[in-house]
Amino acid sequence: MSDASTFQSALGPEIRAHIELKRALGRQFQREAGILGDLDRFLVASDEQDLTAGVFARWALTLERLAPASRRQYLRIAHNLCQYRQRANPECFVPDPAGFPDPGPQRPALILCDQQIRDLLSAAASLPALVRSPLQPEVYRQAIALAYASGLRRGEIVRLAISDWDPQRCTLHVRESKSRKSRLVALSDSASAAIERYLAARRRFPHAPDAPLLANGRDCSHRYSGRGIDLGFRRLFRMTGIRGVGDRPARLHDLRHYSESRIIPSRVRMIGGSSCVFNIVWEAMPLTTRNNRGVGPSGRASHILGKIYVHPTLLPQSREPGQGA
User: Fold this and answer.
1) Contact 259, 193 (CB under 8 A)
2) pLDDT value of residue 151
3) Rounded CA gap, 156 and 173, in Å?
4) Overall pTM surpassing 0.90 (yes/no)
5) Cα–Cα–Cα angle for 275, 276, 280, nearest 5°?
6) How far is CA 312 from CA 141, 277, 288, 297, in A?
7) Given CA atoms 69, 70, 75, 78 in this order, what sign does their dihedral have?
């Protein structure tokens, strides 16, 4: 990952200005800065003074090691830089995105069965408590539970703070998620109990409200990185023999797919006419929609004994006699 001050090519000042603009607009722009750093290093190694069509094509050839979707992302980020440069210099070269690689079909989702989830939980419980990670078994069991029960993304899980858990309403406050939006996620009774059990262990270490929920380090004061928790999950998948579609390695993200397959059932039976309670065939599951409709009328997470409250505006509208279907 490149810091904005490390660009040494002739385009370095423009790259730094482009990154600073994006960050001023609220973007973290870390991965993009790393990709632009790769372009910058190529320009330095080739002793190029400008980014021309020929130079761009030669840089693109160095990306053959990447998958088509990753190559397309690299080229798209460089394309955005060229568009930024063109604002000050209309003669600046801008590549044609039509020539970028086809990203190909999306990776098929791996839907895990209940037994595989139980195997993952057992494997997590068997992990050793290390000096530099004394809560390692508890952390990975909790991460599995969060991805399984609520469909949180990897970055959302590792960014959770202790204060994001509201035990009164049984909700998690997910901050600055995708598209930099925040939301509340309601958890089932069993998922809420799992968090409380984890917090009982977490509170043996310093636990200020803004401290990371899933923590490592000798005193559990450090937040897991996305890559760090990914490495742990790769180990768990190897221990349980779980492989992805096409024998590819399984990922933490696959647990999110599993959750999404359970969030909105294809068929539900409404209880009691105009009641706001649906009978769900699975154990209580989260329903998160816009405006936090997953939180029931009582103000706490609305998952009780396998039934789920749904906001009245989400219910089918009854029709007056004589109205068409």
Assistant:
1) no
2) 84
3) 10
4) no
5) 105
6) 35, 10, 14, 10
7) positive
CA 154 vs. chain centroid, Å, equals 4
- What number of other Cβ atoms are within 10 A of residue 134's Cβ? 20
Give which of 114, 25, 38 is closest to 70, Cα–Cα. Answer: 38
Cα–Cα distance, 58 to 42 (Å, whole number) = 9
Q: Where is 184: in which H helix or E strand?
A: strand 183-186
Q: What amino acid is encoded at 147 in this protein?
A: A
Residues of the chain with pLDDT under 50: 1-2, 263-325
Q: Which residues contact 116 (CB under 8 A, 6 or more apart)?
A: 240, 242
DSSP string of 281-292, one letter each residue: SSS------GGG
pLDDT, one tens digit per residue, over 32-77 is 999 999 999 999 999 999 999 999 999 999 999 998 889 999 999 9
Q: Is 15 in contact with 30 (CB distance < 8 Å)?
A: no
d(CA 154, CA 199): 20
